[in-house]
Design goal:
The chain has 344 residues and is of the alpha+beta class. It has helices at 2-16, 97-100, 131-143, 145-148, 168-192, 198-243, 248-256, 258-270, 288-294, 318-322, and strands at 24-25, 29-30, 37-38, 44-45, 51-58, 62-70, 81-86, 89-96, 107-115, 119-127, 162-163, 166-167, 277-282, 299-300, 310-314, 327-334, 337-342.
Length: 344
């Protein structure tokens, strides 16, 4: 009777479950004179289609970025992108985009793939993801460049990689909690069959559960430590290839970016010899550290303070360009890189 009810319930759920969305082929085309591939204008519901599958043939290993535009923001930019590894040869790459980037929302208007190595997109389609594609996407993310980036440690002091956009430590915390509960219930039931002393059963169950949970924690902690060592080895390997044997000027150029380093050299030549306070505005994320180090003995400060004598401007945003400051032009490298001096 129970078996019959189960099959009736399962059959009812199948009949009333929505049919899966049809796979959509994506027509990527190379852009003339450019190293990337883009699509014509699309109209894809991101809520229905969350998984992109690419088949890429590359001559060598490297990395690539996937960008998309939606009806909220028609530009291809970094906030709406995924960074992934590309292997030499022809391989499939699976992206559960919605789980890796919260900006996969609204109507998707276009896609763009920018591979670093020479490559071609053999086939592309977008589908409604399932458990298998979700696992493949998470595995690919974990071992890809985004998963290797140290994103923080949460309450565990070991820096971590990410899966589905979250620290892998979080998943380990859940594993420990679930296993603790499962160990305790299993041991409690097992001992209860042999004894009626509930106090003894409770303490014996807790003791055995604590021992097994401790062992599990050590194993997971060791895996995290090995993963972190692997991350730092990759950083060391990349930095060795990037900086070894180069002059200090070339190293700074690589680390700061050539345009920014050239601007700092220009600023060092133009600022007075005696120490002064200067401010810095830029559309770049956190350029202050390099300026603080390179422009010693000058002191970086908030440009709104009255004791700041000079303002360095490097590729400002539109708002920064039009904002009124108590500074006048002092020295100019180009239209996006210049120095201003306080007038009031």
């Amino acid at each position: 009777m129970i078996t019959r009810l189960f099959f009736i319930l399962a059959f009812t759920l199948i009949l009333h479950s929505p049919s899966p969305a049809k796979d959509l082929p994506i027509p990527f085309q190379p852009v003339s004179g450019q190293p990337y591939f883009s699509t014509p204008e699309l109209m894809i519901d991101s809520a229905e289609y969350n998984t992109l599958i690419l088949r890429i043939k590359a001559k060598q290993s490297g990395t690539a970025r996937l960008y998309w535009a939606n009806h909220y923001d028609a530009q291809f930019n970094q906030p709406k992108s995924l960074w992934f590894s590309v292997k030499a040869g022809e391989h499939n790459y699976v992206f559960n985009v919605a789980s890796q980037n919260p900006n996969w929302i609204g109507w998707i208007k276009g896609l763009l793939v920018y591979p670093e190595p020479i490559a071609e997109i053999k086939e592309a389609k977008i589908i409604e993801g399932n458990l298998l594609t979700h696992i493949k996407s998470g595995w690919q993310e974990f071992w890809g460049p985004n998963g290797r980036v140290v994103i923080g440690s949460t309450i565990n002091l070991i820096p971590s990689s990410s899966i589905f956009g979250r620290s892998v430590n979080i998943y380990f915390y859940w594993i420990i909690c679930i296993c603790f509960i499962a160990f305790f219930i299993f041991k409690f039931i097992k001992i209860m069959k042999k004894s009626d002393d509930y106090q003894k059963i409770l303490f014996s169950s807790l003791n055995e559960t604590a021992r097994k949970t401790f062992i599990l924690t050590i194993i997971l902690w060791s895996l995290l430590a090995l993963n972190t060592d692997y991350n730092y080895f990759n950083i060391f390997k990349d930095n060795l290839a990037k900086y070894f044997g180069k002059s200090i000027e070339k190293k700074r150029e690589i680390a700061y970016g050539k345009e920014y380093y050239d601007f700092l050299v220009f600023a060092k030549e133009k600022l007075p010899k005696e120490p002064v306070k200067f401010g810095l505005i830029s559309s770049y994320y956190a350029p202050h550290l390099q300026a603080r180090i390179y422009l010693v003995p000058h002191i970086i400060s908030d440009h709104k303070k009255k004791d700041v004598s000079y303002l360095l401007v490097f590729k400002p945003t539109q708002e920064q360009s039009t904002e009124r400051y108590d500074f006048s032009p002092f020295a100019k490298l180009d239209n996006n890189r210049y120095i201003m001096k306080r007038t009031k």
